[in-house]
Amino acid sequence: MNRRDFLTNSVAALLASSTGGESTLAAAEGHRPNVLLLMSDQHKRSCMGAYGDKVARTPNLDRLAASSVRFTDAYSTNPVCTPSRASIMTGLYSHNLEAQDNTLPYLPTHRTMAHDFDAAGYMTALVGKMHWVDAQSHGFEYRLEFNDWYQYLGPKTKLYADELGRRNSGSGLPEIDDLWRDEDDPWKGHRTLDNREGSVAVGRVSLLEEKDHFDNFVARESVRFLKNFGKAGRPFFLVSSFLKPHDPFMPAQRFADMFRAEDMVLPASWAKADQSKLPKEVVQSINVNGPTPELRDPVEAKKRIALYYANLAQMDDCLGQVVQAVKDLGLENDTIIAYTSDHGEMLGELGLWQKFEFYEGSCGIPLMIHVPGRKAGVCDTPVSLVSLSATLTGLAGVTQLTANDGKSLAPYISAPQTTRPYGPVFAEYGLSSKQPKYMVRDRDWKYTYWVHDIPELYNLRTDPEELRNLAADPSHSAQVARLKNVLFAWHRPPG
């Protein structure tokens, strides 16, 4: 029996016999599977064919979903890049980390799953975006990120600086904020500016050739890593992390041609939010939308939606190149593959754009995990990305070096329709800001506590568009009190 057959049979048998979240699901010692974590940025959960979207062009993700356990109700721990990614990598909630916004890194005392895999003898590699906002290695021995892409681009980097139009660590310019903190933005006065009203353009076709996009760079270098190290005698833990569909909303021509703005449909909840029952910050975002004021115009809104789908299609194409390389190199039966995103995108729902909120479009993320030899399935249990570290290490038989807040999703991969409770799902945002807020999802209910504003309560079964805030309804006062107690038992907000 060769290694691939051994792994396939062993992993399947151990998954079938698993009964608990802490069970080891990997093959026997010495035959550990590779682990490939595919990530995107700002991928709205519902925007994928496998999740029922008829507009999205995501054939590669859909094929992966067909051989995976797909989670229909997975959530980010924090709907913004750096804190969410910190939780993914460490298995810790934001209030247990220093990384609470896109400028704050976390201390090296917090070990990541890369440290866990490294200690177990894996070759650890990161190709793409992780938004560390510092220079720590965080457990990876092989890294290619934005600054390596800029070396590849050379003078063509200016085209990307023009697309961004500003400094923006979320899009990798700079990759580390401190590099520009003392001397300010070196691109100031050297960009060719466009006529955008805010900081983020509605979008257009990119002037970069398709091969020069960051996502294509990530795909190409991930494939190179697999060719060079996929059969080098050590199992690998590879994170291939794409930027798209995050801004700039400037896809390559081939993907922009797939979607016409006039064919796009505004969300069903567009212009329907009852602003009298919403927190002030949400109302302000609906009416002003500082990053892209143009989106108040339905014509411009449809243009953005088309360009978002085009960005997503380009990311899917690049991701498909990595998955295909796994197959072409004969690694398919040796490799656990997971896909997720750090947070979602409102994409016009309730009149909102980008992320930052706890509505489904912003906080809900796609999650699917493929284990060789395991049947595919769909899991409707609400879960959190805080569990991804415990899940991937557990599936590989790797011991976590330090305890964290996550718990393995192995029981749901073994039996997707299990009634085994996961427990409430929590999220938080802006802990170091003037307006911190916290969320709990428990069964059909979602409750958001704003420290300095009114709360929100939604029944996602009867009100999936989150149009009816029931928090002030006397008939739901007991539900509000219950969920508030659950939330405060998890983490008590200040004040």
CA-CA gap between termini: 62 Å
| H and E order | HEHEHHEEHHHHEHHHEHEEEHHEEEEH
Instruction: Name the overall outline.
Output: globular
Number of helices: 15
Tell me the name of the CATH homologous superfamily of the largest domain: Alkaline Phosphatase, subunit A
In helices, the fraction of residues equals: 25-40%
Question: Which band does the percent of strand residues land in?
Answer: 5-15%
Assign the CATH topology of the largest domain. Answer: Alkaline Phosphatase, subunit A
State the secondary-structure class: alpha/beta
**Overall average pLDDT:** 93
Radius of gyration: 22 Å
Q: Can you identify the CATH class of the largest domain?
A: Alpha Beta
Number of strand elements: 13
How does CATH name the architecture of the largest domain? Answer: 3-Layer(aba) Sandwich
* Domain module tally: 2
**Low-pLDDT sequence parts:** 1-29
Main pleated sheet: 9 strands, mixed
